[in-house]
Amino acid sequence: MNNENVELEKGEAFIVVEIIEYIPNSVVMKTIIRKTTGNVTAVSFDSGEGLSSKITPFDTFIQVIDGKANVVIDDKLNILETGQSIIIPANTPNSIHASVRFKMLSTIIKSGYDEESV
Hints:
By secondary structure, this protein is mostly beta strands. It is built from no helices and 9 strands.
């Protein structure tokens, strides 16, 4: 896995799908914003690559920006195409795989979990 953890220049326009490239046999991550309260990351997956099953303590918003993704949440397969999104619930087993290459945005919000609902 290739991580590029340099935030993008603030106040400068960019096209999300163009800030990250496909690399053969790789998953590439590029941080767009990283804060203690959450982060936004662009990720590219080459065909056949994926992220193994994990559980995170926060909700994760996934938006496919190119291609088609296989997102498994609590053993349920969700096939997302360009423009589609899904929220992976906190504390739920999940994995992401590419039968064809794809790019996505991943947004995690870490604040608000200790606050009462209004």
